[in-house]
Amino acid sequence: MANLWIKKSISSLQGEAEGEKGGLKRTLSARSLVALGIGAIIGAGLFSITGTAAANNAGPGITISFVIAAVACAFAGLCYAEFASMIPVAGSAYTYSYATMGEFIAWIIGWDLVLEYAVGAATVSISWSRYLVKFLGYYDIHLPPELTLSPFNTATLADGTIVSGMVNLPAVFIVILMSLLLVKGTKESALVNGIIVALKVSVVLIFICLGWGYINYDNYSPYVPTNTGEFGNFGMSGIVRAAAIVFFAYIGFDAVSTAAQEAKNPKRDMPIGILVSLAICTVLYLLFAHVMTGVTSYTSFQGADGIAPVAVAIDHMGEIGANGVVTPAYPWLNKAIILAILAGYSSVILVMLMGQSRVFFSMSKDGLLPKVFSAVHPKFGTPAKSNLLFMLFVSLFAAFVPADIVGEMTSIGTLLAFILVCVGVLVLRKTQPDLPRAFKTPLVPLVPILGIAACLFMMVFLPGDTWLRLIIWLAVGFLIYFGYSVKNSRLNNPNKKDEE
User: Is 498 a member of any domain?
Assistant: First the structure.
């Protein structure tokens, strides 16, 4: 009987990071890691979630909600930073769990991370396709809806005809493009990601700077609208409910930790990458939300979806005529916002695909998955075969499955990962208090406990069917673990090392 709770020693993990030959290339600087984090965090969620959460839950107090969500993320981020500096190997929460809670828990979290990275990448690629169609429409380029929707989706044409989708080709295109970029090399991927990050951050800053001059401070009164009598509809309960919603606009900073084995100086740079990217995005989010609810009343965003909340705000940036109608001063800004969304989604897909391949790289090195996932390309120094396999899997998913089926699964999978990392910090501080730590999570055990509580709180607010899907997904993972992984685990089967 295999020992399900067998642990990898910290010293062996550190040895893997420092002594492995023929492994992943160390090409990422602290600046690249910060850009990687920003690339994963800022997606279209900023442009859509902000307005809808303000309209339905928090009003102008949405900025308070962003602060609450940022603090919750910071708790988990500080725990990630300690682990990433101490165990600078690919694998993120999977590796940390292996060292603190044993192989079985590590398998659970590794399998769970597929929901955050691979499924998340597919979901984002479907949304990327939708915005590409919208952007091309500005220039009278109209792609056939049959080739931009899954077979489960329909579209209504201008003449009222309803057509069903066949395959979502734009979603497949962006997944293939980002995957091939990852195959080529981490350094090249980081360069492209840096350019994309610069573009979308520039658009966010342009929105903030141009909109600041059109803020009407009357729109901030009342800053926290009176509760309607229903929990979550304004008042302080609305602030908290909005925090649970906008929390997911922060998801992605943990993907930085999957690149630890490719960082030039991981002990110093990993905490910088995680915490600085989170801090920069928090400041941008607060300023963005402040301007958005300042140029027009939060009630203007009711009923809006997609990028519509931002479009409403932009339409209110202008001079008010005698008839009370606003003449938009920057009509071109809506196109720039969609361009930023396309760029934002591209970098999110890139980082998610990178994170997924690195988690499976570590699991494969431990024998829990087939060797193909840890095969490193002799020229590019990347897990090219793994990248190509995930390109196929994610492309098929993006081509034929509607996005709304698993969108919330990404959230619940991420929150579970955050909880286990926070637990891991508590366990290691108790079992190995004298272990050298390049970065130490402050105020232990308070910070990890608050991180666990905050993430559990967010999970409680997710629908019941999302929990059911998580249970089914984990059940499939158990079948794979007991059918394959236990028999091939390098820790549970030391003779496997000799065979290799």
Answer: no
* Assigned domain for 394 exists: yes
Q: Tokens representing 499? A: 């065979």
Q: How far apart are CA 449 and CA 426, in angstroms?
A: 8
Is 346 domain-assigned? yes
Cα distances (Å, whole numbers) of residue 471 to 111, 204, 409, 467: 12, 38, 11, 6
The verdict on residue 478 lying in a domain is: yes
Q: Give the total number of structural domains in the chain.
A: 1
The C-alpha atoms of residue 318 and residue 351 are separated, in whole angstroms, by 37
Burial state string for 69-91 with b = 16 or more CB within 10 A and e = fewer than 16: bbebbbbbbbbbbbbbbbbbbbb
- Tell me which residue range forms the domain holding 68: 22-133+170-490
Query: What's the pLDDT tens digit per position in 363-418?
Result: 998 999 999 998 988 888 888 999 999 999 999 988 887 665 555 677 778 888 88
Work out the pLDDT band at 499, boundaries 50, 70, 90: very low
